[in-house]
Design brief:
mainly beta
Length: 68
């Protein structure tokens, strides 16, 4: 919800939000993007949510990354 007010120019991600480890740009139908990040910041046993930040999409376009 914090990202909605950030707007499309910020990919609906609140600037400086420390909860965000990595994100892609907002993509449209048929488009793609990719990211790379170091897993060093992830904790074993951690439970990390990923989701679409486009308004309204997060409720159905989400998942979890579980670090073992």
């Amino acid at each position: 919800m914090d990202g909605m007010s950030a707007g499309l120019e910020n990919d609906y991600i609140k600037p400086g939000d420390e909860r965000v480890i990595a994100h892609t740009k907002v993509v449209g139908s048929g488009e793609s993007d990719s990211i790379s990040f170091s897993p060093d910041a992830l904790e074993a046993g951690g439970d990390y949510t990923f989701f679409c930040s486009f308004p309204g999409h997060w409720s159905v376009m989400q998942g979890k990354l579980i670090v073992n």
